[in-house]
């Protein structure tokens, strides 16, 4: 008889992972998140972090974090609805609202729990959520926590969306369309102008998760809505503070009504401690820097264009990305993982992404170029891609 506390049912599942060749250990980084890092004891060029603007280890932002710690301490002491709501939390929300050109912005501890908390709070039985089939896991979890009905439309397929909308309009009270602003695996941008038009035609609300658009698209990284000039036409504009902004946190911006309701019903804010002062101080500085200058986003796009041009002209298949996310599509799953492993052996870290994260046969390494990369680092990485690509007969 096995002892229940040995967790043998989990051990069996772990054995299955090993048998399927998908068991893994996590790479360990011994430096700050920079363009070059020490990973598992070895210096490598980092082409996999979401630190788009290089803000994660920016001096000005670090100083702001330290200053916030000195004045407000290491922790906030409580959830916001009890006594964890500091003036710096409210100031940051006002700054974010201004940045996004919305009435109000409501702050969460992460983008993940922003989705988990907001979607369930703004929907109820009798409503329906219509979600792009490639939406992020945190949106899927948020939808699962909602008591509304749920359905999906084919990825960025407006005929599919309209079909679902037409059918839903007859049977449900409120309709909420949810989409990623930028899709993280392919780097394509949501067809937001068409989505907003369809939403208006069928009297639906819209919710955009702009995690990969935040700090990347639009003027100074204001996001996908700004990129398309759709201010005031998206009801829930969700932003991420952990990718482009380089630190931690999430928020949803929109109307004051949205803010007032979430401050009473957003469960991650009601039942989990508010962001610590260091994070609030750092994020506030990062957003201030973006509002002062476009130099950070300009540099990101300059590097991204350079990388796409170089990698594309070598003959790699870089898909249909419209953003700095640059997939190099290899296809076969095992070959993709081998490509990633060989790049690492040659000093370039790019994570391999395969089924079930992306469809079978579309395995890729996903290159994330940042504003912090130098041309010299990018050129060195290009050389490694060429060398390994030729060795593996991916390039002719
Ligand atoms: C990364 C990501 C999140 C989660 O962001 P965190 O701030 O790290 O919790 C949510 N949605 C999308 C689309 C993402 O890419």
TrEMBL record:
- What are the GO cellular component annotations? cytoplasm
Q: Which terms in the Gene Ontology molecular function aspect does this entry carry?
A: 8-amino-7-oxononanoate synthase activity; pyridoxal phosphate binding
**Pathway stated in the Swiss-Prot or TrEMBL entry:** Cofactor biosynthesis; biotin biosynthesis
EC number, UniProt record: 2.3.1.47
Catalytic reaction(s) noted: 6-carboxyhexanoyl-[ACP] + L-alanine + H(+) = (8S)-8-amino-7-oxononanoate + holo-[ACP] + CO2
Sorted alphabetically, which keywords does the UniProt record give? Acyltransferase, Biotin biosynthesis, Pyridoxal phosphate, Transferase
Gene Ontology terms describing biological process: biotin biosynthetic process
InterPro entries xref list = Aminotransferase_I/II_large, AON_synthase_class-II, AONS_Archaea/Firmicutes, AONS_Archaea/Proteobacteria, PyrdxlP-dep_Trfase, PyrdxlP-dep_Trfase_major, PyrdxlP-dep_Trfase_small
| Domain (Aminotransferase class I/classII large): residue spans on this chain | 42-384
Extract the Pfam families matched here: Aminotran_1_2 (PF00155)
Cited CDD domains: KBL_like
Q: Which family does it belong to?
A: Belongs to the class-II pyridoxal-phosphate-dependent aminotransferase family. BioF subfamily.
Tell me what this protein is called.
8-amino-7-oxononanoate synthase
Provenance organism: Tissierella pigra
Write the lineage as a comma-separated list.
Bacteria, Bacillati, Bacillota, Tissierellia, Tissierellales
């Amino acid at each position: 008889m096995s002892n229940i506390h040995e967790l043998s049912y989990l051990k069996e599942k772990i054995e299955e992972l090993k048998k399927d060749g998908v068991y893994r250990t996590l790479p360990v980084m011994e430096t700050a998140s920079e363009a070059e890092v020490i990973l598992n004891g070895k210096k490598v060029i980092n082409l996999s972090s979401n630190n788009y603007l290089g803000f994660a280890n920016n001096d000005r932002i670090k100083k702001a974090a330290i200053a916030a710690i000195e004045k407000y301490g290491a922790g906030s002491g409580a959830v916001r609805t009890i006594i964890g709501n500091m003036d710096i939390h409210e100031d940051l929300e006002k700054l974010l609202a201004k940045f996004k050109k919305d009435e109000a912005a409501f702050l969460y501890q992460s983008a993940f729990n922003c989705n988990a908390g907001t979607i369930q709070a703004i929907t109820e039985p009798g409503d329906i959520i219509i979600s792009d089939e490639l939406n992020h896991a945190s949106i899927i979890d948020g939808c699962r926590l909602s008591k509304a009905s749920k359905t999906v439309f084919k990825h960025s397929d407006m005929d599919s969306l309209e079909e679902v909308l037409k059918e839903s309009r007859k049977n449900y009270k409120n309709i909420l369309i949810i989409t990623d602003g930028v899709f993280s695996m392919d780097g394509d941008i949501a067809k937001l102008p068409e989505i907003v038009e369809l939403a208006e035609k069928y009297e639906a609300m819209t919710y955009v998760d702009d995690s990969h658009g935040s700090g990347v698209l639009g003027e100074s990284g204001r996001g996908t809505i700004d990129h398309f000039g759709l201010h005031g036409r998206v009801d829930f504009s969700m932003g991420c503070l952990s990718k482009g902004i380089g630190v931690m946190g999430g928020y949803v911006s929109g109307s004051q009504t949205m803010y007032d309701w979430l401050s009473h019903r957003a469960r991650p804010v009601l039942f989990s401690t508010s962001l610590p002062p260091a994070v609030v101080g750092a994020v506030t500085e990062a957003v201030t820097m973006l509002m002062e200058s476009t130099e950070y986003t300009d540099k990101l796009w300059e590097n991204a264009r350079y990388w796409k041009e170089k990698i594309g002209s070598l003959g790699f298949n870089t898909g249909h990305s419209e953003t700095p996310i640059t997939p190099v599509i290899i296809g076969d799953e095992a070959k993709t993982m081998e490509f990633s492993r060989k790049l690492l052996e040659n000093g370039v870290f790019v994570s391999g992404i395969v089924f079930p994260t992306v469809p079978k046969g579309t395995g890729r390494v996903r290159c994330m170029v940042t504003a912090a990369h130098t041309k010299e680092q990018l050129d060195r990485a290009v050389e490694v891609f060429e060398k390994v690509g030729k060795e593996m007969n991916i390039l002719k």
